[in-house]
Amino acid sequence: MEAPETDRKVVFRARGLTKVYRMGEVEVHALRGVDLDLFEGEFVVLLGPSGSGKSTLLNILGGLDAPTGGEVICQGRNLVQAGDRELTAFRRHFVGFVFQFYNLIPSLTARENVAIVTEIARDPMPPEEALALVGLAERVDHFPAQLSGGEQQRVAIARAVAKRPAVLLCDEPTGALDSKTGIVVLEVLERINRELGTTTAVITHNATIADMADRVVHFLDGHIDRIDTPAVRKSPRELSW
Amino acid sequence: MSILYRKLARELWHMRGQVLAIAVVIAGGMATLVMSLTTLDTLVDTRDTYYRDYRFADVFATLKRAPESLREPVEAIPGVQQVETRVVSHANLDIPDFPDPAVGILISLPDGRNAELNRLFLRTGRLPEPGRAGEAVVNEAFAEEHGFRPGDRIGAVINGRRQELEIVGIGLSPEYIYHVAPGDLFPDFARMGMLWMNRTQLEAAFDMDGAFNDVVLTLTRDGRSADVIQRLDALLAPFGGQGALDRSDQLSHRYLELELDQLRTMATVFPAIFLAVAAFLLNVVLTRLIHSQREQMGILKAFGYSHVDVGLHYAQMVMVIVAIGLVIGTGMGLWLGQMLSELYRDFFRFPYLEWRISTRSLAIGTLVTLAAAAGGTFAALWRAARIPPAEAMRPEPAPVFRPTLVERLGLQRLFDQPTRMILRNIERRPVKALLSATGIAFACGIMAIGTFQQGAVGYLIQVQYGQVQRDDLTVTFTEPTSRRALHELAAMHGVDHAEPFRDAGVRLSRGTAAYRTGIHGFEPESRLRRILDDELQVVTLPREGLVLNDFLSEYLDARAGDTVWVEFLEGRRERVAVPVAGVVREFTGASAYMNLDALNRLMREGTAISGVWLAVDADFRDAIVRDLKEVPRVAGVTDRLTAIQNFWDSMANIVLTFAFFSTVLAGSIAFGVVYNSARIALTERARELASLRVLGLTRGEIRYILLGELFLITLVAIPPGFLIGLGLVYLLVGTLDSDLYRVPLFLTPDVYAIAASTILVATALSAAVVARRLNRLDLVEVLKTRE
Ligand SMILES: Nc1ncnc2c1ncn2[C@@H]1O[C@H](COP(=O)(O)OP(=O)(O)OP(=O)(O)O)[C@@H](O)[C@H]1O
Ligand SMILES: [Mg+2]
Q1: Does B784 touch chain A (CB under 8 A)?
Q2: B295 domain-assigned
Q3: Across B596-657, where does the E strand assignment appear?
Q4: Do B388 and A106 make contact, defined as CB atoms within 8 angstroms?
Q5: Strand-pair category, B80-86 with B245-246
Q6: Mind giving me the DSSP string for B27-73?
Q7: Residue B454 belongs to some domain of the structure
Q8: Domain boundaries, given as residue ranges, for chain A
Q9: What's residue B28's pLDDT?
Q10: Sheet holding A223-228, edge to edge
Q11: Residue B605 belongs to what H/E stretch?
Q12: Can you give the residue ranges of the ABC transporter domain (chain A) (predicted)?
């Protein structure tokens, strides 16, 4: 195993990750051997064409899915071998998710969609505070069907950050947002990253977002093509698209 | 976990239609069970209490005449607790404005007192006063038939002497709860009455001063009936004792027991079938319900809820539904059970009802339902638990495309695009379609077991009173009579045809099996009484030997060629071995038949007959009946039409009410299943259908795609549903067999028609509800959120 490049602590260490989906006779190789370290407190952006395996990797890191091969070490334990109880605790206390398709619970209001997570977290912020953070203080009692796609996505972000997770995994959090709202959301992510030291990984198709990252991981066809380390990290305010 | 509760409440409210439909399925099964067992337990309890409170005897004996002094040795028999001697006899009654002959059974009461055993329950009026002749208490059923009240008078020919009797009271006795005249299937309350009179008067009338001709007794706790009967018979033999009967052979008790057995079978088989079907349907419905929630489970798990948390959440959802169903079912069951119990109370004429809620039915119903619900829920949750959250949150993978059978056969041009979508959808998700179809088929099947009885009973009556018993009037004599009586009756004006018969009370035995019944002797060329073979074809009565009906043949395990012991319970009380000459098919009774001459020879009785069958001109029927009353020694006249009427009246009360309630419950189960299938299909496909609408399909087209599938599945499910119905009826009919009657396995077309139309109406109504929702389908909303 390689020695870490810096003295920063490694949060996730993925080695030789593969994921094969079998659908009848067709085999889809979503991941073909991915090695990646995520360091504590860093802000990583994952870029890559559609279908290149970004979501698959994030799901595996977050303990939502099991790889076909390889290992993921987190806090000294191999997630791949972890039992259901361990993975549940891991998801409950350690990671926050923002999904590509929001995945809100339609029968709960915005506040309740956040509360459903804060209720079981150790040191959460109040749901109202999390929603205020994403600019939805006025809409706490609205149901998902009464919110726009971008608003739903912001509820999803509030839901992810409300428990103050150690790691925040975001799958296209700004995909559905206009640039002004997108910047608001990114500011939230950046502030959480900065103030709470939350390790943050963001998938995006928007290359400009890469400018605010500590590192940029480029995906291609199931493996990591290259990793860039921008010299300067811009603040979201300086971005535009 | 308050948010999860809120989610639960909101979602249950959102799908309240479906919740109610599932609850109805549960309620249907539960109600059937509670209704049946509550009725049964109530009746059995009532009977037991009635027997105990009114001191129903354990042993019954009749004799010719014995001095009262014999009472002491009877009391001294070990195992005997209490003895009551009585004078019991018959009288022909003359009831004002009632032309038919009626028979009264006269039972003595100790002067001015109620009996010690088989006590009278006095509904109104009083007991006969000591020293007053001509006062009688009559039984309630008889009184109701004729509208008697205390103070009314009837005529009675007591031992040849005509007397006026005053009805002073109306009462009930545990001894005559369900008194059926020999040879009849059901009681004829109008033509047979019980009259309780002072002992002194009956002693005088029947020349029984200081004597008795009937004795009843109770046993001590450890008294053995068989031993007591043996000693009692020995004591009574010199006095013309006819063999004491244990309570289990007592007429009223036996018929009551048969009826309760019948009810017991129905009360266990019906609910067992219902509950099993309901449990299965519940399982199917819940499996699909939980399955449709897989995405939400994925979300909950993604945020750190454990399998247990998620499982509990959905288990709570199921429990709420189950609880609603159980509460509705229990309420309905108790209500129906109470109505049914009251019907039965009136039918059996119990003086009161020991209303009892069957706790075991509550326990059994709850456990079975919970088990079924837990099974369905757990299986679905287990399946859901095994999918990683990431996958659960993704929409279900689009099924692998395969051209449907229709397309492979090149028939697709016959169908338009929406129809092809229906066919493809069914073919791609065959398991789902199969589950829906199975549920609907079972719902269709249980309709049959509720509705078949009426038709089957009609068929039974058609065979019994159309093919077997074909006489218009059956005349029975008080005792075996010479053949001359036949010619007298045949000569009556309006009588077309007359045939003699001889009924002999016997005990048939073979090996360890024994059965008390009657041998009916008639002439082989008889037209008014016939016997039928397996295929219900008329067969000729053999010259010699015994013919058993199928029930008796089965019971005694005796076939043609075997020998059975015949012990006559009258006359010379011969015991002879007789070969079985054949077995005949009968839906009623447990009878044996014999050539009249052969029977007479066996009994060494010359040519005695016990009655005559008459075919009469309908115009003269009333006149003949009136004249028959004047003929000495005529004990009674049974009218075939009255017998049929009695049969229907009894059936209507007993079986058909039960069946009616069951049909209603089966209908609601059917409804719940169909509605659920429709609603779940809508939930599962709302997105797809909304997308189609967005792509430009009309409301009519998407309605057709969803509802067309529902109707197609329903139509496909109905024929197997008929088969299931037939199978369930077969199961039920097998368990309903009793010596009283066997319900034939005979399904009239209307059974199928009712089952099919219930299902179709349920489908149409469900379709209407779903169509309304489909019309209000908010395209944007559906597409925006993901359920
Ligand atoms: N459940 C599944 N079954 C079969 N194939 C799958 C499944 N999930 C993902 N795939 C395939 O795996 C590959 C990688 O998918 P993934 O979702 O990781 O891509 P992605 O990089 O996130 O793309 P996008 O930017 O479009 O979200 C794709 O080819 C996809 O079709
Ligand atoms: Mg993706």
Answers
A1: yes
A2: no
A3: 609-616, 634-639
A4: no
A5: unpaired
A6: HHHHHHHHHHHHHHHHHHHHHHHHHHHTT--SEEEEEEEEEGGGHHH
A7: yes
A8: 40-66+84-235
A9: 84
A10: A95-98, A167-171, A199-203, A43-47, A215-220, A223-228
A11: none
A12: 12-239
Claim to verify: residue B701 and residue B572 sit in the same structural domain: no
> Do B532 and B620 belong to one domain?
yes
Q: Are B78 and B232 in contact (CB under 8 A)?
A: no
Q: Which of these three, B585, B607, B638, is where a domain ends? A: B638
CATH: 3.10.25.10, 3.40.50.300, 3.90.190.20, 2.60.40.1220. Which one for A40-66+84-235? 3.40.50.300
Kindly state whether residues B171 and B213 are assigned to the same domain.
yes
Looking at the complex, report in whole angstroms how far the Cα of residue A119 sits from the nearest Cα belonging to chain B.
Answer: 7
pLDDT in tens, B44-81: 999 999 999 999 999 999 999 999 999 999 999 999 99
Q: Give the strand pairing for B102-109 and B192-198.
A: parallel
Q: What is the pLDDT of residue B297?
A: 84
Q: Which of A20, A47, A56 to mutate to test the pocket of ligand 1 (most atoms within 8 A of CB)?
A: A56
The verdict on residue B109 lying in a domain is yes
- Split into its structural domains, chain B has a count of 3
B689, part of any domain: yes
pLDDT one-digit tens code per residue, B721-772: 999 989 888 887 877 777 777 888 888 888 899 889 988 998 899 889 888 8
Average pLDDT over residues A139-164: 88
What residues of chain B lie within 8 A of the CB of A84, using their CB?
306-307
Distance A202 CA to ligand 2 centre (A): 11
Same domain, B612 and B695: no
pLDDT at position B652, please?
64
3-state helix, strand, coil in chain A (%, to 5): 35, 30, 40
B557 in the same domain as B455: no
- Residue range(s) defining the domain that contains residue B699: 429-470+642-787
Over the stretch B388-435, which tens digit does the pLDDT of each residue have? 787 777 665 555 555 666 666 666 666 777 777 777 777 777 777 887
One domain for residues B70 and B142: yes
Distance (Å) from the alpha carbon of A63 to chain B's nearest alpha carbon: 8
Is pLDDT of B465 > 80?
Answer: yes
Alpha-carbon distance A206 to A46, whole Å? Answer: 10
For the ranges A218-232, B56-70, B99-113, B384-398, the maximum mean pLDDT occurs at B56-70
The residue-averaged pLDDT of A32-59 equals 92
How close B688 comes to chain A (CA, Å)? 17
Using the 3D structure, point to which of B253, B270, B298 is the last residue of a domain.
B253
Q: What are the pocket residues of ligand 1 if the criterion is a CB atom closer than 6 Å to any ligand atom? A: A 21, 23, 28, 30, 48, 50-56, 100; B 391, 394, 397
Contact B46, B172 (CB under 8 A): no
**Phi-psi bin for B97: left (phi > 0), alpha (psi -120 to 50), beta?**
left
Is B673 found in the same domain as B634? no
**Ligand 1 test: best mutation among A50, A52, A68, A172, most atoms within 8 Å of CB?**
A52
**Does residue B588 sit at the A interface (CB-CB below 8 Å)?**
no
C-beta separation of A88 from B301 below 8 A: yes
The verdict on ipTM greater than 0.85 is no
On average, the pLDDT of chain A sits at 86
Q: Does B646 lie in the same domain as B545?
A: no
Q: Which of B165-174, B379-388, B700-709 has the lowest mean pLDDT?
A: B379-388
